[in-house]
Amino acid sequence: MIKVITSKENKQIKFALSLKENKYRKINKMFLAETYKSLEMALKNNVVVCTFSLCQIEGINDEIDQYIVSEEILKKLSSNVSPEGVVFIAKEVEIAPKKEEKILYLDHISDPGNMGTLIRTALAFDYDLVVVSENSVSIYNEKVINSSKGAIFAMPIKVGDLTPYLSTHQIIVSLLSDDSISLDELKVNDKFVLILGNESHGVKRESKRSATVKVKIPIKNIDSLNVAVAGGILMNKIH
Amino acid sequence: MIKVITSKENKQIKFALSLKENKYRKINKMFLAETYKSLEMALKNNVVVCTFSLCQIEGINDEIDQYIVSEEILKKLSSNVSPEGVVFIAKEVEIAPKKEEKILYLDHISDPGNMGTLIRTALAFDYDLVVVSENSVSIYNEKVINSSKGAIFAMPIKVGDLTPYLSTHQIIVSLLSDDSISLDELKVNDKFVLILGNESHGVKRESKRSATVKVKIPIKNIDSLNVAVAGGILMNKIH
Fold first, then answer.
1. Residue B159, φ and ψ in degrees, nearest 5
2. How many CB pairs (< 8 A) connect A and B?
3. B44: which DSSP letter?
4. Which residues of chain A make contact with B232, given a CB cutoff of 8 A?
5. Can you tell me the distance from the alpha carbon of A180 to that of B174, in angstroms, rounded to the nearest whole number?
6. Rounded to two decimals, what is the model's pTM?
7. Nearest to B229 among A126, A220, A228 (CB)
8. Cα-Cα-Cα-Cα dihedral of B110, B111, B117, B121, to 10°?
9. Is B172 helix (H, G, I), strand (E, B) or coil?
């Protein structure tokens, strides 16, 4: 169904805007996303509830409601200063991993840009699963969704801890400490969990204790790399 | 000199706030930065004009004015939601490169977070120089400064183009095209320029034409990596 909305007070617009808050995302199990690339990935995964766009979008199933809105309304819905032209509501659906051999564990990642970028990178390096610790930023945060560039609609993601993998997987912790081996020396098992820690506080003590191997990227002149950059370097090597 | 400021109308505060605008940064050749880590790196480089903090900072030269301010004023000065406790004014000083062998060229990078992260990563991998194209985001943008984590105070950076390096350096372009070689096959010369392109539009045609070699990071499932992540993977390999 295609419908034109002209008023900001329209109940669909109000509902969409409510999804900017974590509380309403949790109640409705839905979230906001945007860009045509993300929409394409979300459609493949059958999670699109409805779309808001400046003009009609071709190739969308009739069962998905299409709302044609003004630029002003689109700007309100979007979290970008210059929205690309489409915002949509998607259902939270857990994508089941086909296997659980190559796992990325995100230990208290707090920056949504880093979280989204790490999910995008895990998909690019064909990881089976991303496990996100309870205290990390919500994966349905708008900035996470945006910076994942659609990967949120294709990557299996679970919220949880390391327990299920401790006896079966090699536990690789990224840690700039003296007893860490250099990335080039690392031998990777078939089943592994790669752990990346918080931007300021690093990897939690429990995660460190679980480590089968500690690994570091050799750097100079500065204390650390951005966690999404370090994650990219590690995943490019370990996959 | 240490002085307590209680009013938001104070002229030092007003001056500092004016530096949030590109126009006033250009006129005064100064910019705002924050966090103790950045301050430490800026002090080493003798570019600190004055500091604004909640309490006195030890170990700062008497010639640098220290302003003690309220939490409310610090929040106004800071670009973070929860400021770490210090904001400072720094002078724009071009750091001369010791040599110009390993160069990163940023071709129309528009996201300040990516720009800052790439400068931080170039410093970590001991690059000699970062060249930023004219149409890239200003390196003195607050978000660039913040995400560089102090690297802006240690990394030689120039605004310019490829011309000076075309006849002397290997020109490596990161490009996801069919005729690009895989990163593992790349042989790097002593003198090279690594080019990274715009987040949406990639590397400019002129840069592509200048390429001695095109290189790609093999990925699956998704069109591209974040440019700062791709830059990290490339710089980890090429340095």
1. -100, 130
2. 89
3. H
4. 225-226, 229-230, 232-233
5. 30
6. 0.92
7. A228
8. -30
9. strand
Q: How far apart are alpha carbons B132 and B143 in whole angstroms?
A: 16
Residues of chain B with pLDDT under 70: none
Pairing of strands A2-4, A65-68: parallel
- Angle, nearest 10°, between helix axes A112-124 and B227-237? 60
- A interface test, pick of B126, B174, B219, B234 with most A CB neighbours within 10 Å: B219
- What local confidence, expressed as pLDDT, does residue B24 receive? 94
Rounded distance between C-alpha atoms, residue B80 and residue B143, angstroms: 9
Q: Do B123 and A37 touch (CB under 8 A)?
A: no
Does residue A123 belong to the interface with chain B, where contact is any CB pair within 8 Å?
yes
Helices (H), B19-56: 22-28, 36-44
Per-residue pLDDT of A33-68, as tens digits, reads 999 989 999 999 899 999 999 999 988 888 899 999
pLDDT tens for A161-176 read: 999 999 999 999 998 8
pLDDT at residue B225, as a whole number = 95
In the sheet where B157-159 sits, what is the strand order? Answer: B157-159, B129-132, B102-107, B192-197, B170-174, B213-216, B181-182
Q: Which amino acid is at A208?
A: K
